[in-house]
Amino acid sequence: MNRRRVCLRAAAIALTLPLAGCMTVHGERERIPSVQKAEAARVLADFAAVNNRVGRTYDAKAVATVESGPLGATDEAGLRAKHTNHPQGNPGYQPLVFSDSRYLIPRQVGWPKFFVADTATNRAAGARWLLVFRRSAAGQPWKASYVASVATADLPKFAQDKDGHSVALGLAGTDLLAQPGQLSADYGSYLGGSGTSEVFADGPSTSQLRADRNAHARTADSVTQYADQPASGGDFTPVALRTADGGALVFFASHHQSRATFRAGYRLTIDDDTKALMTGTPRTSVTLVHLADEAVTVPPAGGSGKVVFLSRVVGLVTAKGE
Fold first, then answer.
1. CA end-to-end distance (rounded Å), the chain
2. Which residues 6+ apart lie within 8 Å of 122 measured at CB?
3. Beta pairing partners, 108
4. DSSP state at residue 245
5. Which of 171, 175, 300, 308 could cross-link to 181 by cystine, CB 3.0-4.6 Å?
């Protein structure tokens, strides 16, 4: 009898330890660096230490206190599933190591504030991690909200002000082809078929993903429906940094739901991690909700360039059987 395997796509586990730090001026009124470099380095070092502890123990409860936004949501779900199936943890876990770390620190007024750690890791040769750390107010902990793994050759050159600080951009009213605050909704419309290809360049996360969906939407054994929703506001708010070419690197998130309905008598095979997150009993249908953590380059408006995906990390956050 035919089988279909419904799988949980693993998301990278990444945690950062709360670290409030000190400020000598009022960050809500003055345009100041979002963090001092020494403090940013401590945040990243604590990130590695906690990441390695949680990688061994699958401690899902710790995630909410040290992460936020899409990274926190996907890590909490993934760790919870892993701990359910492996309560003894992962004794074979290989520690994460950072090297050649740099910090993209913008001047900002008000809260929240953010900075980006750009670092090499022992996880993938020829690639670097970009980690967005954000804190909501003075005295609050820094929390990691986005992570991207980008091929070193694809990393953009970032613009700097006269003092060497990175340049943060707003969510709207920019001179970019697409506004950072609208990218999540635009991407959902594009995947749903109502958006055009005028904004997004062809690639695995755009044209190929749409083609794959179309190919699997209807088979001899199942019909799959897709729904895409924007993820924005609060800790899901996009982050944008000006690049040297006049464009920007933007981090944003999006929700993606798929509902597969199977013919009568079809035998489902569901992997253990997905089972750990599932509610209900999967008899004739399975609904999966994934959260995607994306990093894209956005060109200036008026040219021929398009939005290009540099990284897309996807994690399963809920599953329902009926």
1. 20
2. 94, 96, 97, 99
3. 32
4. T
5. 171
pTM for the structure as a whole: 0.90
Q: In a 3-state reduction of DSSP, which class is residue 220?
A: coil
User: In this structure, are residues 160 and 208 in contact, taking their beta carbons and an 8 Å threshold?
Assistant: no
Unique residue bearing structure tokens 């820094």: 142
> Can you list the alpha helix ranges (DSSP code H) found in 167-251?
183-192, 207-216
Q: What are phi and psi of 280, to 5 degrees?
A: 75, 180
Q: Nearest 10 degrees: CA dihedral of 191, 188, 313, 139? A: 170
CA distances from 10 to 7, 75, 83, 313, 314 (A): 9, 9, 14, 9, 7
237-241 average pLDDT score? 98
Residues 103-140 have pLDDT tens digits of 999 999 999 999 999 999 999 889 999 999 999 999 99
**pLDDT at residue 43, rounded to an integer:** 94
The tokens for 39 are: 């403090």
Q: Left if phi > 0, otherwise alpha if psi is -120 to 50, otherwise beta: which for 193?
A: left
> pLDDT tens digits for 30-39?
889 999 999 9
Strand partners, 135: 113
